[in-house]
Amino acid sequence: MIHNNEFLAKAQQLIEAGRFIDSKGWVPATSGNFSARLSDGNIAITVSGRHKGRLVEDDIMLIDSMGQSLDGKKPSAETLLHTSIYKRFEQVRCVLHPHSQSSMLISRLFKSALVLKNYELLKALAGIDTHETQTVVPVFANDQNIARLSAEVESYMDQNDPIHAYIIAGHGFYTWGKDIAEALLHVEALEFLFECEIKLYGVQLP
Hints:
With about 210 residues, the protein is α+β, with helices and mostly antiparallel strands. Helix content is about 35%, strand content about 20%. It is built from five helices and eight strands. It has an eight-stranded mixed beta sheet, sandwiched between helices.
């Protein structure tokens, strides 16, 4: 399949994002998945099972807004979690999903939600312009049934204030942005804040 220039540009940005996130140790082995929405509504997304620190153009594929492959390649089993974010937030153009150690430890410390408040770095998250605020990062139980997990996330979002990210327990977290740069900024800021909370509250004893 011959891709247009917009797809190729987004693919290159996802490749660069993958290298940065991998350099921090936030996508070990072949974990995680990244995507970017194109102007026609289709989505560039990482092919299932590819190492995110060693991505090449062939590791990025094209799906439609429903998550169906448009080029014969196999998307991640978690594609529905990407498409549901795009469906909900018209302005979102990128979804990033690292499997970082800190997000997994946070899910051990905070069973249902982490409340981040009074951190200056909260201003790195879209729409926040003061440290005198708080944002909730909900934690959902891991589930291999992605449709069921997606429905749970959707239900939470229907009933609560807008969020910048959510954690899947023992798995990793999802965050998003108006473009790849903003989503990447969210990843970096949330990782720092997760580490602050872990150092503040320690680890649980068995």
